[in-house]
């Protein structure tokens, strides 16, 4: 029992007592495990890291109860919900901001309706930087509340998400802001590849056989491939794990392309699935996804909303991991992949759980920070006031 | 720029290239920083830790932008929202369950309406243990959804929270379950004291001058005192930091007792504040709180709901830390304490941010796991089916 010697009473409260002494305290410095551990393979110069919040170094869980339930004795969960804004988007945000802090850029922009926007708003706040987020006018008020709570400036674009991306990228070019848009900044992939390095190290410098990953725009999966490729380039391993990408049945452009089958309209409706985080009609780097999945001997699978909800419940109930539906897609994809003989239950399998939803302290957003715009001029005017 | 040598194109996606080689990879094992680091001062026997999720080792943030805003150059945030269920309750849950896993106990129970219940449900799920939670019938459906999502069994008690505690404790005694009720199990304080050890190590084996802490039932603050006391007992330091406890103005029994002033009914209404996590009418270990605050030269302060909301926004907007109102109480308390000359801005100050709200994947709970009960017999019958 450690070195317990007995107990005393403190105002009605039982205090255990130990055989005290300096030798009882942990020795050495506590370890710090963050993605900056891999900085020789990241595009940042020497010198201290300026980003003020630890990012990455998320747990690789052995999930004993889930292993038993699924009959998968070598299953692991890479739990990216343990990042500061509860998703893997924090990695990309941190690297883009680190670069900006070193170059003296004071504003970061992105278009997003979900976790990337929240990660950008919170990450910029931590770094004392300004975040300018572009969203569609149909973005949910509770999402806006999270963004404005962190002090972000939000611009709503009536023409929808694609127009929001265009305006965000134009603003970055015109005003010299950091561009964190998915697929636009190679740093987002550089940051996310560190997940591959971590998994390899956490398995004792060994690779899994297969890794299963939710796919929306594509950078998360493509970045994993890049990380594993670089382990080969470094001479640290000779093969790469298979990557299996997962999309929602109602919005599965890359699964249909993978199968080389025609796509019905009901399979291309981003608003028809609960997996909003991966519901992307025209994936920003879809071609790269297909190429790396093919190269790695992997596959693309689609899953129903029911399977996603069931995966959310199973992750919570058998692994104690809280995930949003898109974040739990890897588990739903595992079951589909086993059904289709794409995976053998006794392989070493890693599920990437990408995110969970967090709540804003309040339900409403700060209207003084949210403006409907059509042009860059309007953006500039709104920010000047 | 790390060792970047150029870039190549992958299906329209820019891939940076590096001067690859085994020497580019991080060396040594990545550090793992969890509360088990302090196991010689925890009541668990030798042998491997069985609890399957890393707990503790949360960041101590230097929050540069917040320091600047507040004019507090040596301010730190101990960010307990980085625990798996996003609150410091995970520490107590993990230690209680670790003890149960070693003794072969398969059920854990607690009464709670908030973070402790969520931490217990998710922690038990991770460990493959059964969680039985007792709540008042007025517990919010979204909280129930989080508990049942993680597979917990929930019993609603019409007579309210105090009756729920009584029933949970009686069930633990009668059925031999683990009792995780606040103030009932000394292990909850043992687990939470590790926050003091971590802060001391993270400051380079030095103590802060003052630490500010939300206070509901009291264990979080009392446990910090115990941790700092044990550093003295171990001969590692000679003094203790002042502890300042924070309660909500509308429910501040311990602040009134501290000031030795009569309490008006409007100051004792747990339903009248947004800080539900610390709104406790009869704190379980209130006497211990008052004793340790006095001994450490600290104080108790109350804060308004407006101040709590403002603290939530400031933590998000200036530190990138998402907190629920009760979780942000330390920041609101800091401002009050500075006003009242309880703290000097140039002291080394640590704010304990205790939790943030997470969302269930769905808004509704599983009704098959929620039962209204009055007696232990009913509990037993419901669990047999």
TrEMBL record, chains A, B:
Required co-factors? pyridoxal 5'-phosphate
InterPro entries registered for this protein in UniProt? ACCD_DCysDesulf, Ser/Thr_Dehydratase, Thr_synthase-like, TrpB-like_PALP, TrpB-like_PALP_sf
Query: What broad class of enzyme is this?
Result: lyase
Transmembrane annotation, as ranges: none
Instruction: Answer yes or no on keyword S-adenosyl-L-methionine.
Output: no
Q: Among the record's GO biological process terms, what is one?
A: L-serine catabolic process
Q: Which ranges carry the Tryptophan synthase beta chain-like PALP domain?
A: 55-355
EC numbers for this chain: 4.2.3.1
The record's keywords, sorted A to Z, are:
Lyase, Pyridoxal phosphate
Positions carrying N6-(pyridoxal phosphate)lysine? 89
Q: Which Pfam families match?
A: PALP
One of the entry's Gene Ontology molecular-function terms is:
threonine deaminase activity
Which Gene3D superfamilies does its entry note? 3.40.50.1100
Source taxon at top rank: Bacteria
Q: Which family does it belong to?
A: Belongs to the ACC deaminase/D-cysteine desulfhydrase family. Belongs to the threonine synthase family.
Would you tell me the protein name for this molecule? Threonine synthase
